[in-house]
Amino acid sequence: MVTENISRSGILLRLDIGSAEGLEPGRLVTVEIQLPVHHAFGGKCMHCQGSVARASSSAAGILHVAVRVLRMEFRASRIEARMQSPVTQVVM
């Protein structure tokens, strides 16, 4: 998973799962995004609860999911900051 774009009101994710099955508009999801480590406060993540605004898949099997953010909070990181993917999980 890759965070394509993020704002206060929404997140655009790219997933390599190919199918939008189970990600119909209105579906409630939880997304955690790992933030870069800062020397003053260490690793943090953004914990977002939202609903799927739209999901579309390409012929190459790439799925783009737009999530409308309903609630966002910053938490201490639960994973290593050196992980390759900044999106740690999407829970449906």
What's this model, at a glance?
The chain is an all-beta fold and 92 residues long. 0% of the residues lie in helices and 55% in strands. It has a six-stranded antiparallel β-sheet with strand order 1-2-5-4-3-6, with no helix packed on it.
Ranges where pLDDT stays below 50 over 5 or more residues in a row are none
Q: Give the number of DSSP strands.
A: 6
Mean pLDDT: 83
- Terminal CA distance reads 15 Å
Overall form: globular
Number of domains: 1
The radius of gyration over CA amounts to 13 Å
What kind of sheet is the major sheet? 6 strands, antiparallel
Strand order of the main beta sheet, please? 1-2-5-4-3-6
CATH class: Mainly Beta
- Count of alpha/pi helices: 0
Pattern of helices and strands: EEEEEE
| Residues in helices, as a percent range | under 10%
CATH structural architecture = Beta Barrel
> Which structural class is indicated by helix and strand composition?
mainly beta
Protein model, in words:
The protein has strands spanning 2-6, 10-15, 28-34, 44-57, 63-76, 87-91. Helix content is 0%, strand content 55%. The chain contains no helices and six strands. The chain starts with a strand and ends with a strand. With 92 residues, the protein is an all-beta fold. The model has no long low-confidence stretch (mean pLDDT 83). Strands 1-2-5-4-3-6 form a six-stranded antiparallel beta sheet, with no helix packed on it. The relative contact order is 0.33. The protein has one domain: Elongation Factor Tu (Ef-tu), domain 3 (Beta Barrel), CATH 2.40.30. The protein is globular.
